[in-house]
Give the backbone structure.
Amino acid sequence: MKLIGIGQLQEMRNRGFAFVLVNVVSRMEYLQKHIPGSVCIPYGKDFESTVKSLFPDPNEDIVLYSGETGPNSIAFKAAKALQEMGYADLLVFDGGAEEWANAGLELHQGGA
């Protein structure tokens, strides 16, 4: 698991790198603002089983983000949980929707 910044995430998107962008905040927070192309899988009771059913390949490239930063963020905790399940290719975007917006990039509201 590795923390990445906005520059790395933008580069991955611009180069067409295949990955899943997962927002781990509540559904309500997701509906208020999220990075385009992200899916909402709230970190909580059913997180692990939901990820496993949607992305059964533990080698899937997954980038997680939340509204917090640092090793105590929800995204970091979610990544640790997935790592314990055997997922290997995990990145945590350590800026979330706020950093994305502060960089002048578009956020979406409502459903994916």
Remarks:
- Residues 39 and 82 are 16 Å apart (CA to CA).
- Residues 6-102 form a domain with the Oxidized Rhodanese; domain 1 fold (CATH 3.40.250.10).
- The chain has a mean pLDDT of 92.
- The chain is about 35% helix and 15% strand.
